[in-house]
Automatic annotation (TrEMBL), chain A:
GO terms for biological process, alphabetical: amino acid transport
Key words, A-Z: Amino-acid transport, Cell membrane, Membrane, Transmembrane, Transmembrane helix, Transport
Entry protein name: Amino acid/amide ABC transporter membrane protein 1, HAAT family
Organism: Pseudooceanicola nitratireducens
Family matches, as Pfam families: BPD_transp_2 (PF02653)
Intracellular or extracellular location(s): Cell membrane
TM ranges: 12-31, 38-56, 62-84, 96-121, 141-161, 190-213, 219-236, 243-263, 283-302
Superkingdom of origin organism: Bacteria
Family assignment from sequence similarity: Belongs to the binding-protein-dependent transport system permease family. LivHM subfamily.
Entry's Gene Ontology molecular function annotations: transmembrane transporter activity
UniProtKB/TrEMBL annotation, chain B:
Residue ranges of domain Leucine-binding protein in the record: 35-366
Repeat recorded as keyword: no
PANTHER family: LEUCINE-SPECIFIC-BINDING PROTEIN, PERIPLASMIC BINDING PROTEIN OF ABC TRANSPORTER FOR NATURAL AMINO ACIDS
Organism: Pseudooceanicola nitratireducens
Taxonomy of the source species: Bacteria, Pseudomonadati, Pseudomonadota, Alphaproteobacteria, Rhodobacterales
Keyword vocabulary terms for this entry: Amino-acid transport, Signal, Transport
UniProt record, GO biological process: amino acid transport
InterPro entries, alphabetized: BCAA_transport, Leu-bd, Leu_Ile_Val-bd, Peripla_BP_I
Pfam families registered for this protein in UniProt: Peripla_BP_6
Domain of life: Bacteria
Full protein name: Amino acid/amide ABC transporter substrate-binding protein, HAAT family
Annotated signal sequence range: 1-23
């Protein structure tokens, strides 16, 4: 049982790191620009499709990865310029409608360009094995690489937000947008930077999971809801909150998903226990959210207006 | 209403009343001198690879034979898109508009259940080349329905029998949480009497199996049994080998086969499955089929292709036996029942429920000498195996 717990903890951290990459962008866009972007999950999907395309064209995961990054920047800039820019002054309802439309357009576009058959991305040879943990337990190297990469990006973001000028503007923007713009900061440029940064992080998350999952059109929607939970738990606009929230949500989700059915199996038949466990696991996340919000209504690191 | 329109209306009415009565016995297209065959397969969406294999297998045989049964042959291919309602509509069109003599297909059981009535109620012969639901093998068996594949439970029973023979006492069962997944575990347990380390049902369409693999790693079972068709199987197999679990035998049905091996490649090598055939079986008919398929399509055929190939051979043999006279339905059915053709799988005959009586094997995924991946026969598990539902068939 201990072995299983350790493995699930690692799985939880791995999922948490991915959720963090997606949630960081979402929380910044929402916190600083006050835009609800339902299409954020689409960027995660696009990242996976980009790396799948580039990796297939060049025959190498690494080239695919390197080419994916500038392409992701381009996707972010184009989306900001064509769609997002027009939504800043609109109401939240308009933003939800427009970005939801974007989800449908993007999903169909992906189907037209890449087809409905799932794509797969080759795993880099260096990371394809597994390393022994304890006893007979092994853990895939690639998942450890995801954890390391995610933590490195998290550290980079932490430094950027806390010790650079852009970071200072981001923090200021999240706290009081109108004052920042009154102080003569080019708010449009700041918004473009924030949105593109978020887009690249989401694409990065998609590219990182591509070798372990198959790349398909539904992948964006499956993570979006959990990401919103992360943002709410962490506090809107807080990168630190997104990090802690993501780890918390992911660990509760994965550990609960396995141990729930195991405990339930004592009292139910396996099919029912498996199903109930799967229903209970995501509920745990929302219960966690409710508890945290009842103690801290603005989330762990959110500022009350 | 004037005279003319009244006449027209009564004619239409009369036709409507009499048409089904005729159709009970001899389908409309039986008397012309063209042999029309409709293929119904899933040719779009994620499972399209299975339908494409079946279509290609059928066309390969049709091309090799030329005129099936010595008649001018016309093949109409339709895509059911994996949707039962659409499949029923297209099957109706094949039977009522195109007047086909045979309908061949589909891949999935839910599609089969949707088209079996529209096709067979007109007297048209339906030959399933993959799906073989228990109802059609048992109490709802149908004289106009044949299958060249298997009854759905059988491949799972093969794996259960193998696990039993190996003396396993601690097998971890994992299948998707839907009807076929539950049938799979039940089929496995039909022939496996040992204990289980866990019986897990995953969400249908789940792609990340890290939680389940963690449980397998923690429990260290004697073996894992799974049924994960399509993309789920590809992901599971890849993640299984990445997690370093390759030391635990991986038993599966419809998971490691020629449709998923191009995607999983080395990750699947050594994994075991149950099947009624493998491309490396040593007989002349199989060699001709496999070599022909690889030469034409550049890929290793799977059971989907083989079973469709046999459907074409079956139609050819039956139509030739009746000399192209499709109006004598009793003679035609007798000719089909004889199954007088050389199947790549070797022994093949029809049981009383029109399901095959055939051998089943343990197969293993291997890298072939030509560099491609395929399954390979390891040992015979069942000889001349009859499905468990045949006794319930009153026909």
């Amino acid at each position: 049982m201990m072995n299983l717990f350790v493995l699930q903890l690692l799985n939880g951290v791995q999922l948490g790191v991915l959720l963090f990459l997606i949630a960081a962008g979402l929380t910044l866009v929402f916190g600083i620009m006050d835009v609800i972007n339902l299409a954020h999950g689409v960027l995660y999907m696009v990242g996976a499709y980009l790396i799948a395309t580039f990796a297939a064209a060049t025959g190498s995961f690494w080239w695919g990865f390197l080419l994916m990054l500038p392409a992701a920047v381009l996707v972010g800039l184009i989306l900001e310029f064509v769609v997002m820019r027009r939504l800043y002054a609109r109401s939240h309802l308009d933003q939800v409608l427009a970005t939801f439309g974007l989800v449908m357009i993007a999903t169909e576009a992906v189907k037209i360009i890449w087809g409905t058959a799932p794509l797969s991305v080759p795993m880099p040879d260096v990371f394809s094995g597994s390393i022994p943990l304890m006893g007979p337990l092994k853990y895939p190297v690639y998942r450890i690489a995801i954890i390391v990469a995610g933590l490195a990006v998290g550290l980079g973001l932490f430094v950027m937000v806390n010790y650079t000028r852009v970071g200072m503007l981001l923090r200021a923007g999240a706290t009081n947008r109108s004052t920042v713009s009154a102080l003569g900061v080019d708010i449009n440029r700041l918004f473009a930077v924030v949105f593109t940064l978020g887009a690249v992080l989401a694409c990065l998350a998609g590219a990182l999971v591509a070798p372990i999952l198959s790349v398909d059109t539904g992948m964006g929607e499956s993570v979006l809801i959990l990401t919103f939970v992360v943002v709410v738990i962490g506090g809107i606009g807080s990168v630190k909150g997104a990090f802690l929230g993501a780890l918390l949500v992911a660990v509760v989700d994965t550990v609960g998903g396995v141990f729930g059915p195991i405990w339930l199996r004592e009292i139910m038949d396996p099919a029912a226990a498996g199903q109930t466990g799967r229903v209970l696991a995501p509920m745990l996340v929302y219960i966690l959210m409710a508890v945290i919000l009842s103690v801290k209504p603005a989330g762990l690191f959110g500022r009350t207006a | 209403m004037n005279h003319k329109s009244r006449l027209l209306a009564s004619t239409v009415l009369a036709m409507g009343l009499t048409a089904p009565a005729i159709a009970q016995d001899v389908p409309a297209g039986a008397s012309d001198d063209v042999l029309k065959i409709g293929l119904v397969y899933t040719l779009s969406g994620p499972p399209a690879a299975l339908g494409e294999q079946a279509r290609d297998g059928f066309l390969l045989a049709a091309e090799k034979i030329g005129e099936l049964g010595g008649m001018k042959t016309e093949i109409i291919i339709v895509d059911d898109e994996g949707k039962p309602d659409l499949a029923a509509q297209k099957a109706n069109e094949l039977v009522l508009r195109d007047n086909v003599d045979f309908v061949v297909g589909p891949i999935f059981s839910n599609i089969l259940m949707a088209i079996v009535q529209p096709v067979t109620s007109t007297g048209t012969v339906l030959i399933s080349t993959n799906a073989g639901t228990s109802t059609l093998a048992g109490e709802a068996c149908n004289p106009n329905f044949y299958t060249t594949s298997y009854q759905n439970d059988q491949n799972h029973e093969v794996m259960g029998a193998y696990a039993q023979a190996q003396g396993y006492n601690n097998v971890f069962l994992m299948t998707p949480n839907y009807q076929a997944g539950k049938d799979s575990q039940a089929g496995f347990k039909n022939s496996y009497k040992g204990g289980t380390a866990g019986e897990i049902y995953t969400e249908l369409g789940q792609l990340d199996f890290s939680s389940e693999l963690a449980q397998i790693a923690a429990f260290q079972p004697d073996a894992v049994f799974t049924f994960m068709p399509g993309g789920m199987g590809v992901n599971l197999v890849k993640q299984y080998s990445q997690a370093g679990l390759s030391g635990i035998p991986f038993l599966s049905a419809f998971t490691v086969d020629e449709t998923t091996l191009p995607a999983t490649q080395d990750a699947a090598v050594g994994m075991l499955g149950g099947a009624n055939w493998a491309p490396d079986m040593d007989n002349a008919a199989n060699k001709e089929f496999v070599d022909g398929y690889i030469a034409k399509y550049g890929a290793v055929p799977g059971t989907y292709a083989m079973q469709a190939y046999d459907a074409a051979q079956l139609i050819n043999s039956a139509v030739a036996k009746v000399g192209g006279d499709l109006t004598d339905r009793a003679a035609l059915h007798a000719a089909i029942k004889e199954a007088d053709f050389d199947s790549p799988r070797g022994d093949f005959s029809f049981g009383k429920n029109n399901f095959p009586i055939q051998d089943f094997y343990l197969v293993e995924a291997v890298k072939r000498e030509d560099g491609m991946y395929g399954t390979s026969v390891k040992e015979k598990i069942f000889d001349d195996y009859v499905d468990n539902y045949a006794d319930q068939c009153k026909m």
